[in-house]
Amino acid sequence: MSGMDDSSPASPEVMLTFYRRLYPFKSIFNWLNHEHTPTRLFTHREFAFTLQGDVYLRYNSFATADELKKLVCQLNPTRFEIGPIYTTRPKDKKTVRAGAFNAVQRELVFDIDMTDYDPIRTCCSGADICNRCWAFISAAVHVIDQGIREQFGYEHLLWVYSGRRGIHLWISDKEAMELTDDQRKAIVGWMTVIHGGKESSKKLSIRLNSRSLPPSLKSALDHLAAIFSDLILADQNCFGSEEGYETLLQQVPDSRIVGDLRKKWQKDPTRSSEDKWMDLKEEIKKMDKGTPQRVALTLALEDIIFNYTYPRLDAEVSKHRNHLLKAPFCVHPKTGRVCVPVDPERIDEFKPDRVPTVGQLLRELDTVGKAEGEVEEHHSDWEKTSLKPYVDMLDKHALRLMDEVRRSKREMVDTSW
Ligand SMILES: [Zn+2]
């Protein structure tokens, strides 16, 4: 495996070794199944495989983690995705009458991708990402993680780096698993301020009536204002360029102020985003308190903060139970990076470029193998590599889920007396 460049896509040989020795099938099973013995959460679950040459195989299902591992090693996919739990085992789909094969349960999932931040980030463009623009993603994680826990009471949240320029959230609480498509749509609508994905051109609309903010946003505002100051003004300098400040001025509902500020900023191109934001606030302070004009402008400032800092969600991913999402610990085919779980409490320290690549992991295995004089092949070899802390994170998460299932089963027995 030596000689593989960290940035080059993984070869079939590399991928096969990765699946055979490193992929944590058991941990994935525990996380999806919520119990040690296989339940419908696993056996009736769809897996979809993308093979070399972009062949796509849907409706696979497995009785055990070993069975899954066996087929993965046989097919050696470039990646695989996890779908919903169906009324029938997905592999038996063809044997049941039409209409009897339905998705019934699935984690509530969210997808945040840098693509939706392209209009506002100034450090990179296209497929590129750096630790600076990752700050948009970490800001989104803070807001969504807190919002989901506080507004909906869900506790079993797993954040997973997508391997390139985004992050996925999987929510495994029983109540979340059982949400209908309509309920999912409602939750996403509640969480959506800025439309990501196909609807990203839509305008910001956060006011319930002309004035008040929904409670979910009111509680986020202080935090977002801090992000706005650090990330948008100081670091990204979003209003530094003419294009940048013109976008800002479009959101100011007062033509006199817009005209004055434009003149001032055109005259002095060195004014930073922080200066310009101060200029705008000063203009508003000059107006008489309580006038409708001043109130409208104050609300516009809040809207601008939301517009630049609020998480941009790809709603389509979350709305449908039967949406497939790349499994954690798959390898991103372009970057070679493993899609590892991320601790939301430490998201600010997370550096995408530090995530292990498959090439790096196999080199680590080579090194330990030589040191130990190993001949025999081991499974769960991830323990000997820098993948370990990430697998541990998933195991801890799965354990909490399994504890809860055990607890609720015991309660059911107790109350049945
Ligand atoms: Zn960047």
Automatic annotation (TrEMBL):
<comment type="similarity">
    <text>Belongs to the eukaryotic-type primase small subunit family.</text>
</comment>
<keyword id="KW-0804">Transcription</keyword>
<keyword id="KW-0862">Zinc</keyword>
<keyword id="KW-0240">DNA-directed RNA polymerase</keyword>
<keyword id="KW-0479">Metal-binding</keyword>
<keyword id="KW-0235">DNA replication</keyword>
<keyword id="KW-0808">Transferase</keyword>
<dbReference type="InterPro" id="IPR002755">
    <property type="entry name" value="DNA_primase_S"/>
</dbReference>
<dbReference type="Pfam" id="PF01896">
    <property type="entry name" value="DNA_primase_S"/>
</dbReference>
<dbReference type="GO" id="GO:0046872">
    <property type="term" value="F:metal ion binding"/>
</dbReference>
<keyword id="KW-0639">Primosome</keyword>
<dbReference type="GO" id="GO:0006269">
    <property type="term" value="P:DNA replication, synthesis of primer"/>
</dbReference>
<protein>
    <recommendedName>
        <fullName>DNA primase</fullName>
        <ecNumber>2.7.7.-</ecNumber>
    </recommendedName>
</protein>
<dbReference type="InterPro" id="IPR014052">
    <property type="entry name" value="DNA_primase_ssu_euk/arc"/>
</dbReference>
<dbReference type="GO" id="GO:0003899">
    <property type="term" value="F:DNA-directed RNA polymerase activity"/>
</dbReference>
<dbReference type="GO" id="GO:0005658">
    <property type="term" value="C:alpha DNA polymerase:primase complex"/>
</dbReference>
<keyword id="KW-0548">Nucleotidyltransferase</keyword>
